[in-house]
Design brief:
Shape: elongated
Order of helices and strands: HEEEEEEEEEEH
Largest sheet: 5 strands, antiparallel
Helix content: 10-25%
Low-confidence stretches: 15-25
Oligomer: single chain
Radius of gyration: 30 Å
Number of strands: 10
Distance between the termini: 54 Å
Structural class: alpha+beta
Number of helices: 2
Mean pLDDT: 79
């Protein structure tokens, strides 16, 4: 019959318990946007702040279509903002800049920007060089650190140290039996 050593049983149970103690890292909120944008257009949204949140992840992906058949290119700048109320004051991300050729629909993905602090209100701010239509998805999510990963790391190191100690202890006792030699005596 196969039996599990009590230390190994404890380590297995501890690893399983720490995996079950996983805390969600972020809860994304998505806002669908379809609107005309001009030189200075902003949209504000309430943000679901989670307890213990340390920041907000922002992302916009969508398309821009000029409202005119002009052949001239224009620039769109997207800034993510966060603040304590719908009227600000706002903290801002670096600019996300995209050139939009005249008469063509241009797709754009800002990728994820991690804001350094959490806030109850978020805003996406468009600055456009000409009148155009923006359509896409604005995502924002509170980010909560995951303490379970630190617990798993500590348990893994502890298990390796314990295994090394057990392995070293058994290596020292192997090969010591039957090594007592007899000394020959000359007669």
């Amino acid at each position: 019959m196969f039996t599990i050593h009590p230390r190994r049983r404890f380590i297995s149970l501890a690893l399983a318990a720490s995996a079950l103690a996983w805390a969600p890292g972020a809860r994304a909120q998505s806002e669908t946007l379809f609107q005309s944008i001009g030189a200075d257009t902003a949209r504000s949204f309430a943000q679901l702040s989670l307890p213990g949140a340390t920041g907000i992840d922002f992302r916009f992906f969508g398309a821009f279509a000029p409202s005119y058949p002009d052949t001239e290119s224009h620039v769109v700048v997207i800034v993510f903002e966060w603040g304590p109320s719908a009227t600000g004051p706002w903290m801002a991300s670096p600019d996300n800049v995209k050139s939009v050729p005249g008469g063509m629909t241009t797709f754009f993905d800002t990728h994820v920007y991690h804001g350094p602090e959490d806030a109850p209100w978020v805003q996406i701010h468009f600055y456009a060089g000409g009148l155009m239509t923006a359509s896409g998805t604005f995502e924002h999510a509170s980010v909560v650190p995951q303490p379970a990963s630190i617990t798993l790391w500590a348990l893994g190191l502890g298990a390796l140290a314990l295994r090394r100690r057990v392995t070293l202890g058994t290596q020292g006792t192997q090969g010591t039996q039957g090594t007592q030699g007899t000394q020959g005596t000359a007669s």
